[in-house]
Specification:
Chain lengths: 767, 61
């Protein structure tokens, strides 16, 4: 099928709507600088905990702000910038609706601003990269739907029949992110800024990393591959090296990526078959990812001399190189034995930042420098500053990742080191933290250099914009209307005529081999989108259905009971403070871990964990078996001044928890929400505040007795001081962690009215 | 017998290996199919970003 040509004289005149593109570009760089500065602050807080100045600005609350800002504000706005610019050119049509473009722009910025306010205030779902609470999630859904309508409307109004490969990547990103966002954020609200995931424990972990991994895939990879397939040929003035390879790249990623999420949960309570499946599909990702990288680099064939002089191409070459590095390392880290060492360490952070700073960041900056003169119809204000940005940014990335790779390997090896007597060589966790401090400072220097580069970009953008001509109208373009669809002819095989019907499949196979049908899809966006959705949904369901339905995945433990109302409130404090950013709650069945932490974690221990809190990084020790390990007073003193209890600790102080009062009356709404999730709360459904007060008094009495063992007056004063404070609820939660497994099964009458199916599928007490 | 019962009695230990074989087969089929695409069509498609669609007609609206 050759490309149809419109008759001369049938040209239509139109213009492109680039005003939102300019706004998205500015937002990209501004939010990028903000998000990276927050990243620098949290990096310094790890090197020196005295930089945790306020509760709202402590590591646990700022780290989600950093990740959300750089993912959704920096990378998100970059995607929208490139998508709106390239989509119009590739489709030869103005954006479907200017009003929708501006609604998208301002809606997205409002979402980012609301995240910047709510996350430091501790409003969070407690799931990485999905922290934002349900009202903001609904706003994200609305804005995303408007974005999708705008893109598909533009596709409908196009003048170019054929959809270029970049558009496929945009389509896949839009539909898959919508699916991931909706299904991972299904919650039961317990107030305007508090909710509980409808999934618990193992299932929640599976859904979270199905989402988390594919957020990387479909928010940070496929959109930027779409940008690569448009902007790299433009910058190099060469067509993509192999269009065939780009088709293979696209479908392989869409098919394979969605399966790989369970590699984030190796050696956890996730079923073994799911983890193995995730590992295998991760390894398979090597092929298409490197196919894409090679396709990108070879697009520069014959243009390599330009790389020496053009900062745009420099950014693109290093970005694609980091894409290759990250997509080599990712599958490597998904192999179970490698993951046993790398997981929970800074190795993961180094891996992520190679991809984020190198691939996403440099693709964005390269695109930005290419766009500036075109969007503002003037010369780039300072090519030399762009060149300086490239070099300082590259050096910053290298310094960052080399330091953090070293930190990750150091800590991972120290965790598993045994001495000659068979004991842990570094039994105190903090011994494995202090050697990392020099690496953390080096990371902060590397990150600072990268931010200086981003500031150069912002300066260049602002100055280029300011030097733009003042009074130019929109440029006018010409193109013929969209050509009619040409359906490839039937395979005219002379062998087909007169053959019995049974031979038809063989002739159909011949048609498949001709590949005409795929080219037809490329001209039919609705059908193309349907096949993308089928690829993603079918792959998801193949993992989700067994994970949710197979009873043996989560053998119930009779002695595991719901959290008490006070413990539930304490758990919410744990989530609000972002403790999961530093502490895991998952003891893996590895000797070094059971020696350090105790009995390995069982799937049945998490059936009431809405959401799960297994974590992904151990900046501090695992907490799943911390219950009963220390006294209440130890916890109190440790929370108020960690370094006094554990010298060299880098944990922030949580003294404010000793002054903030528990909202006892608000606990009822939380218990009611959990009851809606079928958690058997028994009498707590009617009197949660009273039960919480009773338990708080018990904890406060124990604290008071330890604080002033022989002084009645001081004891009474301590009791009154702590009996209604947040710290009591958090201590109650921490003391409960991981203890149910060693308790005897409760009598059946302890939870009157309980109807939870989980308590009926018992397999006896824990072993 | 519910779907839960059926799934719970299924042996999923071979699930990853079967999936691996199936997807490698599909990958090979797609690779083979893609390799047979018409070169002239591919050249046209690959040149879409470089076509004249984003070049100004030289006048303002």
């Amino acid at each position: 099928m050759s490309a149809p040509q419109a008759p001369a004289g049938a040209l239509e005149r139109f213009s492109y709507d680039d005003a939102p593109v300019r706004a998205f570009l500015l937002a990209t760089i501004v939010w990028g600088v903000v998000g990276m500065l927050v990243g620098l602050i949290v990096a310094i807080q790890l090197a020196d905990p005295s930089f945790n100045l306020l509760p709202e600005l402590s590591f646990g609350r700022l780290r989600p702000l950093h990740t959300n800002a750089v993912i959704f504000a920096f990378a998100g706005n970059a995607f929208f910038t490139g998508c709106y610019y390239s989509m119009q050119r590739l489709l030869k049509a103005q954006t479907f609706s200017k009003a929708m473009s501006w609604f998208h722009f301002w809606g997205w910025q409002a979402i980012i601003a609301s995240a910047a306010i709510t996350l430091p205030l501790g409003f969070t779902q407690g799931k990485e990269y999905a922290e934002l609470e349900w009202p903001i999630d609904i706003a994200i859904t609305v804005v995303w739907v408007v974005f999708a309508i705008n893109v598909f409307g533009t596709i409908k109004n196009r003048r170019e029949r054929h959809l270029y490969v970049a558009i496929w990547f945009y389509i896949a990103s839009i539909v898959t992110v919508a699916i991931l966002h909706i299904f991972n954020n299904l919650v039961v609200p317990a107030g305007l800024f508090k909710s509980y995931s409808i999934y618990a424990g193992v299932q929640d972990a599976f859904m979270q990393w199905w989402y988390g991994h594919n957020a990387v895939a479909f928010f940070l990879t496929t959109p930027f591959l779409g940008l690569m397939y448009y902007f790299l040929p433009k910058a190099a003035d060469r067509p993509v090296f192999s269009y065939k390879l780009s088709i293979l790249h696209f479908w392989s990623l869409v098919f394979i990526y969605i399966w790989a999420g369970p590699h984030h949960l190796h050696y956890t309570a996730l079923p073994e078959w799911a983890a193995t499946l995730g590992m295998l599909f991760s390894v398979m990702l090597w092929m298409p990812s490197w196919g894409g990288m090679i396709n990108g680099l070879l697009t520069l064939r014959g243009a390599w001399s330009k790389v020496t002089t053009d900062p745009v191409l420099k950014f693109f070459v290093v970005a694609i190189t980091f894409y290759g590095m990250s997509t080599f390392e990712g599958p490597l880290m998904s192999i179970k034995t490698v993951n046993a060492l790398s997981h929970y360490t800074d190795w993961t952070i180094a891996h992520v930042h190679g991809g984020a700073l190198g691939w996403v960041g440099f693709m964005t900056f390269g695109m930005a420098y290419w766009l500036m003169p075109r969007l503002f119809r003037t010369e780039l204000w300072s090519p030399k500053l762009a060149e300086a940005h490239f070099w300082i940014g590259t050096f910053g990335i290298l310094l960052y990742i080399v330091a953090i790779y070293a930190a990750g390997l150091t800590q991972g090896l120290m965790w598993r080191a045994f001495d000659s007597t068979g004991r842990l060589a570094y039994p105190d966790f903090v011994e494995t933290v202090t050697p990392l401090i020099p690496f953390y400072w080096a990371r902060a220097v590397g990150g600072s250099l990268y931010i200086v580069g981003a500031l150069f970009c912002l300066l260049n953008l602002v100055m280029t914009w300011m030097s733009a001509p003042k009074s130019t109208g929109p440029e006018v373009f010409e193109a013929p209307p969209m050509a009619p669809l040409v359906i490839p002819a039937e395979h005219p095989s002379p062998w087909r005529k007169g053959r019995p019907a049974v031979t038809e499949p063989f002739f159909n196979l011949g048609r498949f081999a001709e590949a005409g049908w795929h080219r037809l899809w490329e001209a039919l966006p609705a059908r193309f989108t349907v096949f993308v959705v089928i690829s993603v949904v079918v792959a998801s369901l193949f993992e989700i259905i067994p994970t949710f339905l197979i009873k043996s995945n989560v053998p119930t433990i009779t002695s595991v009971q719901p959290y008490t109302p006070l413990e539930l409130y304490g758990r919410d404090i744990y989530i609000a403070e972002g403790c999961y950013n530093c502490h895991s709650q998952m003891v893996r069945p590895l000797v070094a871990e059971t020696e350090r932490y105790g009995e390995y974690s069982k799937p049945g221990e998490f059936v009431y964990d809405y959401p799960f809190q297994w974590g992904s990084r151990r900046i501090g020790p695992d907490l799943h078996r911390v219950g009963g390990k220390y006294s209440d007073l130890w916890h109190l003193e440790h929370l108020e001044a960690p370094a006094k209890v554990t010298p060299d600790s880098i944990m922030p102080a949580y003294g404010h928890l000793s002054t903030q009062a528990v909202d006892f009356e608000g606990i009822q709404a939380r218990v009611d929400a959990m009851a809606m999730l079928n958690v058997p709360y028994g009498e707590a459904i009617k009197r949660a505040p009273e039960m919480a007060r009773e338990q708080a008094d018990q904890v406060a009495q124990r604290l008071a007795a330890d604080i002033a063992p022989g002084d009645e007056a001081k004891r009474a004063e301590a009791f009154e001081r702590y009996r209604d404070k947040d710290v009591v609820a958090l201590i109650a939660y921490l003391q409960r962690l991981g203890t149910d497994i060693s308790k005897p099964p409760p009598p059946k009458t302890t939870a009157p009215g309980a109807t939870d199916a989980r308590s009926k599928q018992t397999e006896g007490g824990a072993k | 017998m519910s779907l839960t019962d059926i799934m719970s009695h299924a042996d999923l230990s071979l699930y990853p290996k079967v999936s691996l074989v199936l997807f490698l087969a599909v990958f090979a089929a797609v690779a083979w199919r893609v390799s047979r695409r018409d070169a002239a069509e591919d050249a046209h498609d690959a040149n879409l970003p470089l076509s004249g669609a984003d070049r100004s007609a030289g006048a303002d609206l």
